[in-house]
Amino acid sequence: MSGPDPIDDWLDGRDEDGERLGAHLRADPRRARELVLTAGLIDSLRHIDRTVLALPSARRGWLVVVAPLAVAAALAGVMMLRPDPEVGVESGLRLERGSGVVLINGAQVPPTMVVPPGAVVSLGLGAEAWLIDGAARLHLSGPALLRTASGSGGTTLLDAGRLEIATGASEVRVATAELTVTARNAACALTASFTGTTLVVTSGEVVVSEGGRTFVVTAGATHASEPEVGNVVATSRTRGREVLIDDCTTQAWSIDEGPDNIPPNLTIITAGVESFLRMEFIPARTWTGRFAPYAQIGRPIEVPGDAVALRLRLRVERCLPEAHWNCILANADRSRVFLISSQPAVIRLGSGWTEVDLPFPTVPQLLHGKGPFVPGEMRRLVITTLYADVALDIDDLRIVRSAP
Amino acid sequence: MTQPLLEVNLAMEREQDAVRAFLYAVTRDRDVVDELQQEVAVEALRSYHRYDPARPLAAWLIGIARNVVLRWRQESSRARRVLAPETVELIAAAAEEVCDEVHEQRRHLVDCIAALPDRVRSLLEMRYFTNLPMTDIAARLGRNLAEIEMSLVRLRRALRRCVERRIKDAGVP
Q1: Within 10 A of B114 (CB to CB), how many other CB atoms are there?
Q2: ipTM above 0.90, yes or no
Q3: Do A195 and A248 form a contact (C-beta atoms < 8 A)?
Q4: What contacts A67, CB < 8 A, 6 or more positions away?
Q5: Number of folded domains that form chain B
Q6: Are residues B95 and B48 in the same domain?
Q7: Domain boundary residue among B47, B77, B103?
Q8: Domain coverage including residue B62
Q9: Is residue B110 in some structural domain?
Q10: Inter-residue contact A382 to A79 (CB < 8 Å)
Q11: CATH code at position B152
Q12: Does A74 touch chain B (CB under 8 A)?
């Protein structure tokens, strides 16, 4: 259908490339106001309390954080649940399932399907999936947590439950059994937010710096780096030195105990780790009505260099029945949910307030994205649950410091 | 955290409606809006020391949002699905002008929705809350796609008229 109005056509997707809208606005710039107001109205509709719509089973949840930190007076915010994106709406990445259970937005998928941009893909225990011919960005979440939920233990986490594959990715394999993420083609062939190289850390801790940006990977975790010539990698055992990635043809490294096990294609060159981390809490209202597999709340705080953990006091308010997969991992009574960290916290539904420590360097994994993690730099704290439809209350957040 | 930063942060919250409206107008993708809004917030907090209080905060934030969008446009390689830079500029300029109106619109929206018939509210819920594709809505309601598309267009316009009337009644320019 070609709508009667270029603004409606654009907003409803009938004007795919925006050329008609652009021509229209150039001819009549005043109509841009109407576009913004209508867009604002649509955006507001997403965020209103669902009870206003008088519909059953409102998916409303909330999250409040108060942080009695030395450097931040108080943090407060509200987070509400976010409906998952629809599956199969438009062409995106083609996902071919290997073995195990693959879930997209909580639903099991057939062996091959098209994953729309923005869909959340969860890989079950032992699942393998191949993501081929990327045409859009895809977010993966969950494999490590599912593995942990099975009782296998360990600190298994796939990039804080989130992997972004940007346009141009030609083939990425995700294998939960090995907890590796490997770009099949040369790292150089991949682009933007995920360049395709993987660090597999079997023990210890790795600090990765890229162009002045630094982040930490803990043992058992996997982290996709963005290697380019000159990028830097260092292990905790090599604190005081850094490791240079010397080309972009490398596909993966295993770093075991320290510098002796650093693959030969990495070169040790220099030093530098963080002295303190400054976290940023995004204003809560940002998330009203929405809840991705992560949420961002609050305002900046500084975390001192001797911080050993981030302590959250929280409770699980409810798991929404219509989205049971979004709450249940291993058990069938929906009594548990899990927070992603290198040591996932198991919170029993209805068990009241629980204190959970997310130890450093786990916390950096909770920080959104793969970007900077350098002294004094502001970062966003991401409270992550494996699935979306879990309502959490967090009423306290503290930094736990090491004993003097 | 310094006091000015706190103030900027609090003030930013008040201006998020306009920023989000602008972002949605140029991307029409709610997930992208969330992502880009975060980028805007981060960038604003990083560069708050450059903010001139004599300038409206919303305009400053939308300026940042415009840069974020243009960068996203470049990086996302979605040239066929995003607006041309000059169109983004046009919309950013408009967003600066309607900041207050966007905010007021949101304030009155709930009342306007509450006045809608159930059937219409259900349509709103399916499309904008649950994010169902219009084809799915059409199938679910046993109507054809064109009908659903037109219904939503009319519904949005009706809501716009309603909030405009309420804004006017409330005496807000």
Answers
A1: 11
A2: yes
A3: yes
A4: A74, A75, A281, A298, A301, A396, A397, A398
A5: 2
A6: yes
A7: B103
A8: 1-103
A9: no
A10: no
A11: 1.10.10
A12: no
Kindly report the number of other CB atoms within 10 A of residue A355's CB atom.
11
**Same domain flag for B33 and B87:** yes
Q: How many CA atoms are closer than 13 Å to the CA of A146, on its beta-carbon side?
A: 27
Query: CB contacts < 8 Å between A and B, how many?
Result: 203
In chain B, which residues have their Cβ closer than 8 Å to the Cβ of A194? none
Whether the model clears a pTM of 0.95, i.e. scores above it, the answer is no
Partners of A213 in the beta sheet? A210
User: Which amino acid, residue B90?
Assistant: L
pLDDT tens for chain A, 404 residues long, are 444 689 999 998 888 888 899 999 999 999 999 999 999 999 888 766 555 554 332 222 111 111 111 111 111 111 111 222 222 222 334 454 444 445 554 555 555 555 544 444 544 434 444 443 332 233 333 322 222 222 222 222 233 233 333 322 333 333 332 222 222 222 222 211 222 233 333 333 333 333 333 333 333 333 333 333 333 333 222 222 223 222 222 222 222 223 333 333 222 221 122 222 323 322 222 222 222 222 333 334 445 555 556 566 655 554 433 322 223 222 333 344 444 333 344 455 556 666 666 554 433 333 333 333 333 434 444 343 333 334 455 555 555 655 54
Q: Looking at the domain assignment, is residue B21 inside a domain?
A: yes
Closest CA–CA distance from residue B64 to any residue of chain A (Å)? 16
A317 to chain B, any CB pair closer than 8 A? The answer is no
Q: Same domain for B97 and B145?
A: no
Task: Pick the residue of B5, B6, B20 with the most A CBs within 10 A to test the interface with A by mutation.
Answer: B20
- Whether residues B64 and B20 share a domain: the answer is yes
